Amino acid sequence: MLHQIFVAPFVQMATLPDFFLQVLWEGFVGGVLYALIALGFVLIFKASGILNFAQGIMVVFAALALVWLYEIGVPAYIALALCILMMLLLAVGVERLVLRPLVNQPDIILFMATIGLTYFLIGLGEFIFGGEPKVMITRQLGIPTGSFELEAFGGFIIIQQLDVAAAVIAIAMVLVIAVFFNRTKIGRALRAVADDHQAALSVGISLETIWVIVWFTAGVVALVAGIMWGARSNVSFALEIVAFKALPVIILGGLTSIPGAIVGGLIIGIGEKIGEIYWGPLLGSGIENWLAYFIALAFLMFRPQGLFGERIIERV
Amino acid sequence: MLYREVGQYNTSYAQDMAVFPIRQDRVAIALILVIAFLVLPLTASNFFLSSIMIPFLVFALATIGLNLLTGYAGQISLGAGAFMGVGAYACYKLTILFPDVNIILLVLVSGFFAAGIGLVFGIPSLRIKGFYLAVATLAAQFFLEWCFIRIPWLYNYNISGAIEVPTRTMFGVPVVGPAATPTVRYLVVLAIVVLLTWIASNLVRGRVGRSWMMVRDMDIAAELMGIRLLRTKLVAFAVSSFYCGVAGAMMVFFWFGAAEASAFSIRLSFTILFMAIIGGLGSLVGSFFGAAFIWIPPVVLRSVPEAVGFRIAAETVEHLSLMIVGSLIIVVLILEPHGFARLWQIAKQKLRVWPFPY
Amino acid sequence: MSPVHFRSDNGGGNNKGGKDMRLRLLAAGVAAAAMLFTSAATTSVSAQDGLYIPLLTYRTGPFANSGIPIANGMHDYLAMLNERDGGIGDAKIIIEECETGYNTQKGVECYDAVKPKHPLIINPYSTGITLALIPKAGVDQIVILSMAYGLSASADGNTFPWVFNPPATYWDGASGVIKYIGEQEGGLDKLSGKKIGFIFLDAGYGREPIPLFENAAKKFGFELVQYPVPADQMQNQSSIWLNVRRDQPDYMVMWGWGAMNPTAVQEAARIRYPMDKFIGVWWSGGEDDARPAGDGAVGFKTLNLHAVGANFPALQDIKKHVIDTGKSQTDPARLGENLYNRGVMNSVLMAEAIRTAQELTGKAVVDAADVRRGFENLHIDQARWEEIGLPGFAPEIRVTCDNHNGHHAMYVQQWNGETWEPVSDWFEPMSEFVEPLLEAAAEAYVSANQPWPERKEACE
Predict the structure, then answer these.
(1) Does the model's pTM come out above 0.80?
(2) Which site from A212, A285, A309, B32 is most exposed, i.e. has the minimal number of CB atoms within 10 Å?
C-alpha cells in the first residue's frame, strides 16, 4: 500500500518519460488557461473589491456570442470586434445597473449580486443562443489547428498547435495587462481605486469610469479565455464550471495579485494533472474535481492570504 | 391605530424573557401554526403540498442552518449542499441498517453525522477568513460530492449510484416511499421544521448565539473577552451542518423519494446561500422569507402561462425564469441589502405608527 | 441638547420618501405574488378529451445537443398524426413538453405537475429520472416508456408491470458490443487477454451496463478498464484520455450523452486513438457528436436500433404536414438524423401501443391502464412498419406480458465524415448470457426495495 503511494507513481514517471512529459505539457496548458480566467477575477477584485462570480458565465457568453455572430453570417474578425464591443456594453450595463446602486455595500452583497448576474446571463444566453453546445470558429480566427508530434524518449509527445497558441496568447495577455497596470496613467488610477475608494474619489478619479474600464478588460480577458477553452472543447454552458477551477488558483495566488494568478495557475494546473494521472487510480479517479481545492487549502493554512496576496492586518 | 403594542407590561422575569413577549406576536404565530397544520392539509391540492410547501419547508430549514453559520457566526460557507447530502446518505444507510427504527428518529440522528463532517471541514476557519474561507468550503462541497459517487457503500452498491427511498410506516400509515400521501409527508416535515426552528430560536437568543454574534462582529475582540474561538466556530459549523443534514434527509425522504449524487451539487449550495441572503442574514424569519421568495416564483412562473392561456415553449419558460430570478435577486439586493427580514421590520414599524407617517 | 428627536430604526427623516416607496413596492409585489400564487395553486385540471401525452424533454443545458433532436422527433411524429390522420383512431393527441434539463429533481417535478392531468405515458428520457419514477408508476398507475434506456431489469414484466423498455436494454447493447468485438477479433475466444476500456457518464445511465461488462470480462477473459466521466467534467476529459493513452486499451466502448459525446470523440482523435476500435452505444450516435471532430472522427462506430435518413414516407409526411407548415421547431436539414429518427421511433411505439389499446378496449379515448395492456400486446411486424410509412426502419417489435423489452436486434454503423453508414448486419444480443443476469437483477431490485408490490394486473 505504501509502495503504491510513494514508489509506484515515480516508477511510472520514470519508465514512461514521454508520457510524463505529455502530462506535464497538458498540465502546463491547463494551468495557463486557468490563469487566464483567474486574471479576470483578480482584475475586478483589485479594482472594486468584488469577487465577480459572473466571470465564468462571461467567458461562456462571450464565446457563444462570437460563434453566434459568425453563424448568422458576420465574417470572423468583424465578429471578434463586435464581441469586444459587446463586452464593453456589458461592462457599462453592469456598472450602471448593478455596481452603482450597490456602492458601499458589504462585499458579500456585491458577491451575491454577481451571482444574480450569473443566473441572469445564463438565462439570457440560453434564450438568445440556444442551449446546445457549439463549435468554436478556431480556423476562421486564424488560430492554428492540427498538431505536431515530437519524438522523445522512445515514445512520442503530441503537442496541439492550439495549445501552443493558447499559451502564447495567455502569456502575452498577462504581460500586456501587467504593463498596463504598472506603467500607464489609467493603470495607476486602477491601483488607487483598489487601495481605497474614498481616497481615490477625493483625488478626482472617477470611480465609474474606472469600473467600466476594469469590467471591460475583464470582459476581453473572458472573451480570449472563452475562445481558447472553446477551441479545446466545445462552447456550451458546461464551460461555466471551469470557472470554479479558477477559484483555487486565485486563492493560492492571492486575490489581489496578477503574478499570483499565473503562478497559482501553473501550480494548480500541473499539480492536479500529475495528481490525477499518477495518484488518481488509487482513489478511484475523478479526483481532479477537488484536488485543486485541497492543494490551495494546504497552501492557505500556511499563508492565509495566498502566496502573493496582501497580508490582512486586523485591528481591534 | 389598529396595531398597538403599547400597554403590555411584563411583571415577571419569565414574561420578560419569553420568546414572544408581545401579544400580537403570539397571536400571529398561533394563527400561522393553525393555518399550517389544519387549514392547508384540508384545503390545498396535492400539487401545492408536494411541489410547493414541502420543498419550501425543506429549503427553509437548510437556510436556517446556513443562516446560523453565515448570518450569526459570520463564517461564509458554500458547502451547504454537500452537508445536506451527508444527511441524506446517512439517513439512507441508517434506515437500511435499521429498518424497524422510526424514520423520523433516523432523520434527526442523521443530522449528527452531518454535524460531525461539518466539524471536520470547519477546522480551516480557524486560520482562514472571508472569501478565502468560502473557497475552502467549496473544497468540502466538491470532495463530498465525489465521495457520494466513489464510496459505493453509501448507496448500497446499487449499480446506478442512486438511492431509492423504501417505504416506512408510522402507526400503520406510510410516511416515506411511493405510497406516502403528500398530506402525511407535509405534516411530518412541518412538525420537524417547527421543532427545529424553535430550538434554533432558543439557541440564537442564548449564550451560544451571542458568542456567535460576537465572533461575527469582531473575532479578535471576542477572543480578548474570553470567548474560545476554536470551540465557538466549530460549534457553529456543527450546528449548521446538523440543520443542513436534517434538511437534506427530509429532501430525499419526504420530497424526491430518490436521489443521486448530482442532487447535492454546487447549484444547491448557491440556492441555499441566495435564500439566506435574500431573506436576510442573521434572521430566522428571514430564512423563511428567502426560501419562499427563491423557491415559489419559478414554480409559479412555470404554471402561470398555462393558467392564463399562453402557449410558451417549455424551455423558454425555463430561460425566462432564470433571467427573472437573477434580476430579482439584483433588484432585491439594491432595494434592501439586508433582505426581506429588514423589510418586514420596517413594515412592522410602519404598522406601529399608522396612520401617521412617523 | 437638541429637542427630543424620534429616531425610527429605519434611519430618520430625509429618507422617508425612499422607505415609503420601498414599502409600496413591497406591498405591490406581495399583492401581485399572491394573485399569481393563488391562480397557480388553484389551477384546476382541464378536462382532457383526448390522448394526453406529456413529453419530458430537455432543450437547454449540457445535454441539449442530444435532447433537442429527440424532442423534435417525438413531437413531430405525434403532431404529424394529428395533422394527417386527426390523431390516433380519431382521438386527438394532446402533446405538452416539460423541460427537465436531464435533471432528476426537475424530472420528478414535471411528473408531479402532469400527474393530475391523467397522462397516458411518461417518457423520462433520462435513466436517473426513470429510476426515480419506477416505484411511483405502479402506485400512480401511469405507464413509463423508457425506450432503450432506464433500468435494464425492468424488462421483467412480472416485477415491473407499468414499465416498458423496448427494443433492447443496455445489457443487450453491452452484450452486442462484446459480440461485435468478438467478431472483429475472429471469435469470442480471441477476447481473452485483451483490454477493453469503458468510458461512461458517471450517472445512472453510464453505470447501468457495468455489471454485464464485468460478468463478460470474467467469462471471456478480457480486462475491463473503467473511465467514469462526471457530468460536470464532460467538457474537460483531457485527463481521462491521457489515462487512455497510457493504458492503451485494444477497444474503447462509450456510454456517453449530451456534451460528453463530442468531447470524447474529439479527445480520442487528439490522442490518435484508432477510431474504428471506438464503439459507442446507440445514444452516442448523434451526428453532432461526430461532426465537431472533423476528419478525426471518421471511423467512429456506434450501435443503432433503427435506420438513419429521411427517405421514408412517414418522414416525408412529417416534412409536409408539420415542418413545412411551421408547426415544428425542427430545422428541415435535420430531418432524418439519427437522434431525430430515434425520437420518431419512440413516438411510433407510443402510437402503436395506443392503437392496440383502442382495439382491445373498443374505446377511442383510452386511459393509462388500457395503454398498459396495449403495450403488453404490442406487435409491429414488417407489414405494419410498411403501413406506418417506415418500411425496413426497424426489426419486428414484439412485447409481451412478462417480456417488456423483447431483446431485439441491433446493428453497428460507422461515421464516414458526412453520415452514418451501416457496417454490419442486424444481429441479436447474446440472450443466453443476458437473461439470467436480468432475472437476478430484478430479484435484487425487489429485495432492495421492500416492500415491493406484487403484480395485480392480469396477463392477456
Answers:
(1) yes
(2) B32
